[in-house]
Amino acid sequence: MPVGKIIKALSGFYYVWHEGAVYQCRGRGNFRKRKVSPLVGDMVEFKAEKQDEGYILSIEERKNEFVRPPIANVDQALIVTSAMHPDFNALLLDRFLVLVEAKRIEPFIVISKMDQLTDEQTEKMKDYKQMYEAIGYPVILSAVDDEEAMDQVQSHLAGRTTVIAGQSGVGKSSLLNSIDPRLAIDTNEISESLGRGKHTTRHVELYEIARGLVADTPGFSSLEFGDLETEQLPECFPEFVEVQDGCKFRGCLHNKEPKCAVKAAVSEGKISGQRYEHYLQFLEEIQKRKPRY
């Protein structure tokens, strides 16, 4: 039986890409019984007499998956954040980075709307770029019609399955449209009264862009650390992982413990104090989370 990749799921149909053709398939009834649901990004075994009459027979093991947005087997996350309208939000960016790190997915960051900044604001964004790049995250500063930035983004997309993430109104769909105008993904102007964009994307779909596959999704609608445990959180901060072997206690949460190498690195300016503050906020949020049974 042929094996293909689900590139779209819509109204109970799964669109499977195989050797340059797309097959419209339904899931077999036993998936429902086993409480398994095929996801965009799944590699599946399927059977199809015609291109619009296929059935998914089995789903190959996933290397990762998200619940919201529902997608599997992602290689990397393109996190888009805007410098203005909505204003740059380092806390929200760090939240996205933690969620992506928790799934062992590589992130890279695009800061959009750089052309709307004053010189002073531009310098501040360059400082953020330097800080995140020192941690190991690629950062691209992007303006309208910025061909160099678009070339950089495309080089990251080639040969990989990428999920695009970021709050509404930061320019995710505009970014994809500027890379590949054939997409013509709907975009909406920012709602001035709300200060944020309206969601324009209705379903998860993988688009072939820049020799890779990119998921334009209805956004990470859940930014809660639902299944992240306290001891996992430090692992989602690469700069902590780099020094934590120097902590006195194994399993150090870098909070109230004495002789903590992370806290020492923060006080010496080797780790961003702002990133550490965000870490403590996330830690408190996870610790206060109600247990689920």
TrEMBL record:
Binding site for GTP: S112, K113, M114, D115, G166, Q167, S168, G169, V170, G171, K172, S173, S174
Cofactor notes: Binds 1 zinc ion per subunit.
Enzyme class: hydrolase
Matching CDD domains: S1_YloQ_GTPase, YjeQ_EngC
Binding positions (Zn(2+)): C247, C252, H254, C260
One term of GO molecular function: GTP binding
Segments forming a coiled coil: none
Example of a GO cellular component annotation carried by this entry: cytoplasm
Domain CP-type G: 63-223
Extent of the signal sequence: none
Enzyme Commission number, as recorded: 3.6.1.-
Function: One of several proteins that assist in the late maturation steps of the functional core of the 30S ribosomal subunit. Helps release RbfA from mature subunits. May play a role in the assembly of ribosomal proteins into the subunit. Circularly permuted GTPase that catalyzes slow GTP hydrolysis, GTPase activity is stimulated by the 30S ribosomal subunit.
Protein family according to the UniProt entry: Belongs to the TRAFAC class YlqF/YawG GTPase family. RsgA subfamily.
Protein name as catalogued: Small ribosomal subunit biogenesis GTPase RsgA
Name of encoding gene: rsgA
